Amino acid sequence: MTGLQTLNGSARRLASAPTYGDPFSLISRDFDRMIGSIFGDRVTASQALADDKEAAKTLLNPRIDVHETDDHIELSAELPGVEQDDVDVSVLEGVLTITGEKKSTRESNEGARVIERSYGSFKRSFRLNDTIDVDNITASFKNGVLVLTLPKVAEQKPEPRKITVSG
């Protein structure tokens, strides 16, 4: 029977759904768009990966959590196996960039039977909107998690100015 699979004694038809690629990369791209909307623009790292398929094979894509409060945004990046010295965070012209490299602990893969862990460079970039105080961004790194605190610019409430009336 073509198109059928027997499972626990019952025949089931196999769905022949078209293949659209890695579903996790689609989810990641959607998540990047959502994060980009928080920061005022699209995330540029996913676009770079989509443009260069060879880069997609070698670049790691750290997972990001974003939490917002009234006075700051906290961005956490999962970087398991990455040393603190191998991570660089910078801001240039309103773009926050996290770069780094996860290095292999082995010099060669000779004799390897299975290699599932990924090694290589990574880069995530986010366009910051005008509400972020870029001069006071702080970063901490503990247990493979990079936490960036992006303080918001304090809103200046206009105060009425007293004008004396002369007569």
The chain-level mean pLDDT equals: 75
Strand order in space, largest sheet: 3-4-9-8
Shape summary: elongated
Indicate the structural class. Answer: alpha+beta
The amount of beta strand, in percent, is: 25-35%
Tally of individual helices: 3
Helix content: 10-25%
What distance lies between the first and last C-alpha atoms, to the nearest angstrom?
Answer: 103 Å
- SSE order: EEHHHEEEEEEE
| Poorly predicted spans | 1-20, 41-58
The biggest sheet amounts to: 4 strands, antiparallel
Radius of gyration: 24 Å
| Strands, count | 9
Write structural notes for this entry.
The protein has 167 residues and is α+β, with helices and mostly antiparallel strands. 19% of the residues lie in helices and 32% in strands. Strands 3-4-9-8 form a four-stranded antiparallel sheet, with no helix packed on it. It has a three-stranded antiparallel sheet with strand order 5-6-7. Strands 1-2 form a two-stranded antiparallel sheet. Strand 3 and strand 4 (72-78) form a beta hairpin. The radius of gyration is 24 Å and the shape is elongated. The relative contact order is 0.17.
Topology:
Layout: E1 4-7, E2 10-13, H1 23-39, H2 44-51, H3 53-58, E3 64-68, E4 72-78, E5 87-92, E6 95-102, E7 120-127, E8 138-142, E9 145-151
Antiparallel strand pairs: 1-2, 3-4, 4-9, 5-6, 6-7, 8-9
